[in-house]
Amino acid sequence: MPMPSNIRLDTARPDDAEAILAVHRAAIRGTAVGFYAPEIIDAWAPLPVRPEHVDALALRVENGIEEAVVARRRGAGIVGFGSFVPGRRELRAVYVRPDYGRMGIGAAMLAALELRARKYGLKELVMDASLNAEAFYLRHGFVTERTGEHLLSGGLRMACLRMRKPLAGR
Ligand SMILES: CC(C)(COP(=O)(O)OP(=O)(O)OC[C@H]1O[C@@H](n2cnc3c(N)ncnc32)[C@H](O)[C@@H]1OP(=O)(O)O)[C@@H](O)C(=O)NCCC(=O)NCCS
């Protein structure tokens, strides 16, 4: 599905960090909640959003450690974001506010991130995908390599899937 015309993709700015983390929490709590135990959801999407998490994300965006795109809707602010870490050829995130789900926003952000990754000269992207998102990534050319675990802050481990996608040339 093509993305709605009143939504545009933008490079994330450091001062988007707070809105990005609000989308992150809403996406997990609205979409992933049936796939994980409540204590995993709480550790993955802790509320309230803490200022040190906002500052840490703003810094990663500012210094280019994390390349992020946001989906903005006029009047509604940021409704989705995605990012990758060039130095690790790692797709870090694609998150869409649940009330904007299945409108093509995730797919459009993923395409934009892949384009940027190719500009960095990356030949592939790897990621730890959450269980709820596997169908989305399979639909977009990722393959599942194996099951794994992702260590959350606080020490809990969440089940995830190691996925990989080769990027087309040039
Ligand atoms: C995964 C996520 C980013 C998808 O975003 P989205 O904007 O809803 O996805 P799109 O509308 O672009 O979907 C494109 C296609 O992907 C597939 N897809 C997306 N979500 C799916 C789902 N929950 N189940 C099955 N297929 C799905 C479909 O083929 C869809 O096309 P269709 O709607 O025409 O059938 C979103 O559901 C989300 O934020 N989830 C919670 C956060 C999360 O776990 N992110 C991944 C962390 S690794």
Number of strands: 7
The CATH topology of one domain is given as Aminopeptidase
Low-confidence stretches: none
Overall geometric form: globular
Mean pLDDT: 95
Query: End-to-end distance, in Å?
Result: 26 Å
Sheet-strand content, in percent, reads 25-35%
Radius of gyration, Cα only, in angstroms? 15 Å
Strand order of the largest sheet: 1-2-3-4
The bound ligands are:
coenzyme A
Question: What is the CATH domain class of one domain?
Answer: Alpha Beta
**CATH homology superfamily name of one domain:** Gcn5-related N-acetyltransferase (GNAT)
The structure class reads alpha+beta
Order of helices and strands: EHHHEEEHEHEE
Q: Give helix % range.
A: 25-40%
